Amino acid sequence: MVDQLSNVERAPQRRMRVEQRTLGQKNGALTKLKNELATLKTNSKTLKETDLYDSRSVTSNQSHTTATAKEGTSSGDYRFEIYQLATAAKQLGNADVGASVTTSAALDSTGFAIAVTEGTVTVQGEQITVATSDSLDTTLDAIKTAVGGSFDYSVANDKITFTDSSTVVLGSATDTSNLLQALRLNANGTSSITSGANVGGMNLSKTVDEANFTDGAGSASGSFKINETSITYSATDNITDILDNINNSEAGVYANYDTVNDRFLITNKTEGDVGITLEDVSGDFLAKTRLLTANSGSLSRGNNLLYNVNDNGPLESRSNTITQNSSGVQGLSVTATQASGASRISSVDTSGESVTTTESHGYSTGDAVTMYSPGTVPGGLSSSTTYYVKVTANNSFTLHATKADAEAGTSAVNLTSAQSGDVYFLDSNPKKSTISVQSDTEVVKTAISDLIAQLNKVQSLISSQIASSTDADGKITLGVLAAEALPTEIARELRSKITGSVTGITSTIKRLESIGYASSGYTNEITLDDSEKLDSALRDNLGQVKSLFTTETYGVGISIYDYLDNVLDDDGAMASTQKNMTDQVSDITKQIADHERMVQSKRDQLIRGFVAMETSQAKVNQQMSFLSARFK
Length: 632
Fold this sequence. Notes:
- Helix content is about 35%, strand content about 25%.
- The chain contains 14 helices and 30 strands.
- A hairpin with a 6-residue loop joins strand 29 and strand 30.
- The radius of gyration is 45 Å and the shape is flat.
């Protein structure tokens, strides 16, 4: 009975919990609306940024060139002619950096460029066991003995020669040792085979003081500089470790060992005709690897990219990516992967009237060439004249004033002196491509479409949150936010900003209706009613479209963004409304707790009253029993 009475007392709590749930539902609905408004704010931010309308689309009519363009790059076609690709410079260490093999030493300490592994090898069909503890002399003698007959070998100039009266056949599918590879021997279908390269070389697993350098062991530890970047090595670092340290440093180079030519190489990580600086600081690693000029190392210059753009040039770029720093076209970046037509003069034969190029020129007799000269052209030639070549070799030709003379090999131009510095010949068939830069109207169109789609989503959400419904019995149910003023205000403001004319615009495009969007008049949503009108505006009047969305204060993008920025601010209407609801929920929670304490207090009073009444009843019953017993 006490619990029943207490439950009746809790009726106000049940009403307060219903109110609390309603507030929670409203708060949740506002949170959902807030999230959608935040997305709409992002969409409007995109459209209010002027850079959007300066976006560019870029196409190339050839696969060997690709391009990108920053906002504001001048629209138009850019014709590129690529004569020469950029290549990286290399510091070439002198060859034979590794000492010759010691034929009397064990194979594992002989000084092979390729470390020998144990196992078996087959020569002339005979299998021989290779033990790395044996010397090279012992191993070669064992091969000679096993093959027998007229087979013989010789060792000279760090190379091995096998001879026989019949064709020398090397190896089998079951060989397990790499001795033949270490000896650099490959079958050639004859009776005599000689190593294709020196067999002695560098074992990169050795430390500097144990390495097989031709110039003697190096210092166990030390430091050196490459491009002014310091690199140190310790007594426990092997040569591979040191090369890795170089490659992972800030020196901007790759270092490696060329086993075929037995030399070290350092290559710039970037293309272009730029140098490489080297210096031993302590120790002698660079000297022992013969990379220094003092140790016969040499720089193989890189090439700059040579090109024309819109008949302007030749121009040079240190990279295969042409930027505004080279071309002068602001914002345009073009990457080339193929080139043709350039050849650099190596020397001039004034007696034979011929020109020799540094590499194969690729010309054919009768080809027209012009000259590009950062240096001084050879005597007898003019950089403004077109000449015709008569090919005399893949890297040489003579020059003639007419194509007929070139084809006949007559009347060669008289060359009176050699060139000074770099001089290039350029033929008439470079790799050509046209880069087209246009306004990227699709990205603007997508941004507008995204804004409208999100706006309609917001308006639809608000409509569902504030709408009322009537069931079959005529009962009216209000939307979760029907009693809240903020959603209705937001819907009204957004409709006004999206459908109204933009103040301050005098051009023909001053409202969304001008670019094909329209409202049905029955809802707050709008649709693209005329897509051709939108496409035409973007194609022919992009500047006016830009003004529609970006005009200060009143532009569609700016006005929506600014409005939502205020609504969604930490101190804005949305935050204030939700905080008020949260405070109400907290206040109701406190009221429920206070009321529950009152109910519990009354419950305790009732329980004490009932206990006292039952105690009194028990005493009365006891007295009655006593009296009944006395008067029997």
